[in-house]
Model the fold of this input.
Amino acid sequence: MKALYRVGFQTILYKEIRRFMLIAVQTILPPAITTILYFIIFGQLIGEQLGDMAGFRYIDFIVPGLILMAVISNSYANTVSSFYGSKFQRYIEEMLVSPLPNWVILAGFVSGGLARGVIVGIVVTGVALFFSDIQIYSYSVTFAVFILTAILFSLAGFINAVYANTFDDISIIPTFVLTPLTYLGGVFYSINLLPEFWQHVSLVNPVLYMVNAFRYGLLGVSDISLSVAFGIILAFIVVLAAYSMYLLNKGVGIKS
Amino acid sequence: MFALQIQQLSKQYSNGPRALEQVDLTVQKGDFFALLGPNGAGKSTLIGIICSLLNKSSGSVEIFGHDLDQAPETAKSLLGLVPQEFNFNGFEPVLAIVVNQAGYYGMPRHRALARAETVLKQLHLWDKRHTQSRDLSGGMKRRLMIARALVHEPHLLILDEPTAGVDIEIRRSMWAFLRKINQQGTTIILTTHYLEEAESLCRHIAIIDQGRIVECAPMAALLSQLAQETLVLDTAQALEQVPELDGFTLQQTASHSLEVTVSRQQGFSALFAGLKQAGIEVVSLRNKQNRLEQLMLDRVQRASGGAV
Done:
């Protein structure tokens, strides 16, 4: 049965990567363009007026957040659109009828989201290098946060897709929840600039921990303790993975 | 060994009626089995549960002795499904759909490619292997679903109305193909609204109505239970008047055509003897209604207390 798991997983992952690479103009190119605009507007035009933040040029300070923002939105978008598409056109039944266990199906879709997050992250990092001269402070922390964040938001996208009944349902969460959380997650500012009350409010935002841990990996500075950030990220992954498995095992959204 | 054994299977939809009620059903290994019933009888629900597309409320399903709950991976690896509705990614090419399906059954890619070539050639789709599935004709889409279901060489193949909406030529070539794979050892369960299809292909039959199996028997035994048959007779000469035959009521439906209902007790010999005596030469005859259709309506009517 190990061949079943391995080949089944590879098949889903290959299919997922092929899917988003075939439409790279819609999936890979837009984050690169958006990031260029962020760097030009916030980094150079406005950033040069702002001076340093946390001891770094503003454009260098926002690089980690912008990379992670692209990773978050793309890993989420990949899983939510792919899994919902498979529900909508009913080709999820190809997998449900097969002997693939649910954990392999989940791992396949999440890895597809991870793959897109990683590819987009690399592209955006390449773009960032044109505008800033950042050096990686800690490769291990950078790599770990990068991967774990993509996994976390792939899982979140999967859960969104399970509950979605219309195409509106797969855009509501990214628009009204994910985007505000990302923008308020310390991408563009240090929370130390906020009044004390809003600093505490910010701490309930999980994106804050990821952005700061990633910023630590790239720049060596963070508003949050690294161990707390990793603890929160891992806890979210465990909870979301367990809940995804529960939904798949119950057949929520895919079986009557 | 049974290819399929279902015991006490029930299904209650959360916001709907009870779709299956304590269904018991067995299908012998190697059989060609028809599952018939009117729309909404529970056929697709039953198939959905066997194929893990629906959750059951209670009961058990075994495929070649492997319980679907206890050993799902083994049980499901023996099963292939051709669903009623098209359920593939319309943007994927034909070959990718079949090869991916093999991958979901753990078949390495090089073997999957070889196997996909075999089934696509068998179903005359090899020339279309690079075509996106949404660009195929209706008949080709049906054949693609059969190819996809066969790529992992299932021991039990379930076809839910596989010939719906395809022309007679394709339908007959699909029949020949299904007969061939059944002869090679694949157990087949078929649902269809074309009852001549079931009569021509299947050796056993189950009739389901309102979530219950109301008949399950060998096809020949079941057809022999028909109480009466209505025949349409074509005559060599134009009929000037309807002949009167003792015990038979004949009705003229066209200048060269008669309709007569014959009960099992009467038999056909007496009818033809009477027609010969009356000087009427019959050149061809056919059943007015498919025999299986007549039987199914009878069983469904009986199960629902006379009202259909």
Remarks:
- The longest helix of chain A spans residues 58-88.
- Chain A has one domain: 2-250.
- DSSP finds eleven helices and two strands in chain A.
- Residues 76 and 154 of chain A are 5 Å apart (CA to CA).
